[in-house]
Amino acid sequence: STSASMGRCGQVVMGPAGSGKSSYCARLAEHMQSIGRSIHVVNLDPAADNFNYEVSIDVRDLISLEDVMEEMELGPNGGLIFCMEYLIDNIDWLTHELEQLGSDPYVVFDCPGQIELFSHVPVMRSMVTELQRMDFAIAAVYLLDAQFMGEPSKYMSGVLTCLSCMTALELPHINVLSKLDLLASKRVVERYLDPPIDELVAELSEEAGADERRVALTSAIGTVISDYGMVNFMGLDPTDETSIELILMSIDHAIQYHDDVEPREPQDEVEEPDNDDDFDDHGGDFGGDDMTIPEGDESSQ
Prior knowledge:
alpha/beta, seven-stranded parallel β-sheet, 7 strands, about 15% strand
């Protein structure tokens, strides 16, 4: 297995535009630094312009979307695909930059949000293959905005995009509901962290206007999700240290990262709460069957 002292580790952070990928990277970097772990964040978005984390490697040093759109007369989506294909064609640039980080870095890759990069073109799969060739132990982290997940139909849509990336990259995969701090009531999305698919399918089938073909399609989608049995979510509240800690420990377990100790299950590393009130305040285990989400004031962020 790979450890901090034996090899390279990291995360490929994905999700739709606006799902909070860069904010997650910044919060993760802050948390890891606070517990004495080193981290390097790589920006792979050629359209990015503002960062709230220290950028160790920036793809814009190789190519930027603005330049491509101007010189190639392409639109934003076509320009982005061109930029990422250019990166893959010049992957030696990225490998050289990664080599400069040392022999055993922990690297987080902040990726663009366009789903086409995962579903229509093989650029992200090619990049992952190159990272694996460099002996990186990599996990995929897929973020969805919790504000998007308030209805069964939106949940189904989000899960399908997760599955698309899971099957395209074939990596250990952690799904995260982000921006819990922006919900007026966090319990709105509690059922979607690990929901009973049959119940959601039944609800959608009973909606007004659900004809026979739509019901059949909904049932088929539910079967696909159930058959994979791998799509559940962890909650991320940036204002709650416990949530980022649990996500990091789940990723550590997935890639067998450890600091000269045997890998442990995520729940083995969480301190037991002093009493039930403390448990309620911190939200418990965001990934467990009995998970509860803390109520709190809506964040101003």
